[in-house]
User: What shape does this take?
Amino acid sequence: MAVPLPEQSMHGQWSSRWTFILAATGAAVGLGNIWKFPYLTGENGGSAFVLVYIVCVAALGIPLMMSEILLGRRGRSTPINSMCVLSAETKTSQWWQIIGWSGTVAGMLILSYYSVIGGWTLAYIFKSGMGTFSGASGEIAASTFSEFVGSPGTLFLWHTIFMVITMSIVAGGVQGGLEKAVQYLMPTLFFLLLVMVGYSMTTGFFGKGLAFLFTPDFSKLSGASMLTAMGQAFFSLSLGMGTIMIYGSYVPKGTSIASTSVAIALADTGVALLAGMAIFPIVFANGMEPGSGPGLIFQTLPVAFGNMTGGIAFGSLFFILLLVAAWTSSISLIEPLVTWLIETYGMSRITASLCSGLATWLLGLGTVFSFNIWKEVTLFDLNFFELLDFLTSNIMLPLGGILIAVFAGWLMKVELTKSELNIQNPTAYLIWQTLVRYIAPVAVFIVLLKSVGIL
Ligand code: TRP
Assistant: This one.
């Protein structure tokens, strides 16, 4: 017997389409755009990687985001419980709950290292504010960074602070307040990025930076970098994990899922590209190495802040805004676990946050140490942080994405998806259907096989 579907999630509903776009963009725009996108682009040779990334966002990201919002709005609950309701409704196996489970676990795994990098951001607010980078050269910025990550105690401290603050926001359920603040802070971050791009234009290496990002050189494109580009598209858009599903569950009926998804994807990709345009000219102007890894923005941006007028204030402001962007993303990473604990065990929000936060914090210590004392401890040539990142971004998110696509494209009734998506134009619906039914599953599969060298 089909379970009757509630019209509204027990946790509430967005007041308008804009609140949803804002919250979803808040979840999407984060360290992934400003910290991760540039360093992955640098490590994977630039332009060809960027191109694959953009194709993945357009052809996989947008249709999958639509599917995820659709499942969430129909299921109206946490990813695990939504999938339970939806599999009953479509009379398919309860095994489909695996989408919810794997997503909930992935969110916690991602947050465990996200928090460590969030801690770096926190520390860099103070470093910039104290004028550590005044007049700094590329070498000074690089050595400051390596000294910083070389100290397990320091990283431990900042990771702990970041986690405590994140979990207090989650526990207090004051997302409302945070989201109001984000309305102003996110556009400001966008504006500061534009100013940084402006600074990069003065370095004399802007053209070289642009060429690195946008002149495709396919010789640099390996199966592994294709997988990384695809994984990054999932990561940056927060897909394949249930974040968008849970946010989708608060979406009122009648909202256009398609145009909302396109808007979120455009904003998210815009921020990533701007970050790249700000950073690579600084890399080349200072003779730095584009492929220097996770420290890239922490080694390049301080050089710019250290050498521009008002750089101390500007630099700290920049890291403050990056921190806020990181918070809105971290909340979305842990929200599925916290709400699931509340729904399933009847825990209070505070207890649920405490348990999830503690477990995530503990796991994060692995990442803290992988930058110093456990740097050489590797499995398949990857240290703890790299392994966690690979497993989540490149395996769990894309697989979660395929399952979501298959569920929405094949198992849900066409009339149902048609009415939920509310797409008037039949061709547009057909495009979505073809993308989720055939293109997305096949493409993800090919890229996965290619990366392990099977194709
Ligand atoms: N998209 C965020 C970023 O770019 C990170 C993030 C938030 C995320 N929620 C997610 C990644 C869910 C994957 C899945 O920083």
